[in-house]
Please model this.
Amino acid sequence: EVQLMESGGGLVQPGGSLRLSCAASGFTFSNYDMSWVRQAPGKGLEWVSVISASGYTKDYADSVKGRFTISRDNSKNTLYLQMNSLRAEDSAVYYCGRHIGGSYRVFDYWGQGTLVTVSS
Amino acid sequence: DIQMTQSPSSLSASVGDRVTITCRASRGISNSLAWYQQKPGAVPKLLIYAASTLQSGVPSRFSGSGSGTDFTLTISSLQPEDVAIYYCQKYDSVPLTFGQGTMVEIK
Model:
């Protein structure tokens, strides 16, 4: 069974940093592109960042470029999101998502999410 | 960047009704369009990708169509368990943009 489990969320002050993790199991993690998607309370879905299966290719939404860094450790089946210079507007539930494969950057599995709150 | 616009923002229909949700891209995206269902308190669930390919396990009352800039998600016979917010997502290139969502309720 495919499972994705996020951790690392919490309350942080504006300008602070957090590192999110997503532990994957039930599939060959190193074969799949992965993304982070966030959802502010009561709002819609916003894609944040994607990383290729190998980890060599990374892309970011303009809203987080230069502040967030996506990475992965295929030996540990874990995806990461390093978030620096956090702002109030970064407050959201952060989901990791698996892409379905091939050329389809479509999400077939999602974690349950981890809540990030940026507030003083 | 390409913008994705869904309409309507919300709708209310009776059980058994045919429901159609539209998603429009600001530029052509071929058939690189997916639809998701997010029930209250749950994570999104993939319904359709490649504009019209039904994801495994999704009921056949859900269907998708379209290409280029205009896409539709159709529920042929609305069921109580279909109450949710529905999102489209383009994936031709980054950014992977979602529509703003359409809330479907039972009348």
